[in-house]
Amino acid sequence: MEVIVRNFSAEKVEQIANVLKAISHPLRLEIIGLLEVESPLSVAEIMKVLQVEQSVLSHHLTKMKDKGILMSKRDGRNIYYAIKLVEITTIFDCMEHCKL
Question: Where on the phi/psi map is residue 61: left (φ > 0), alpha (ψ -120 to 50), or beta?
Answer without folding.
Answer: alpha
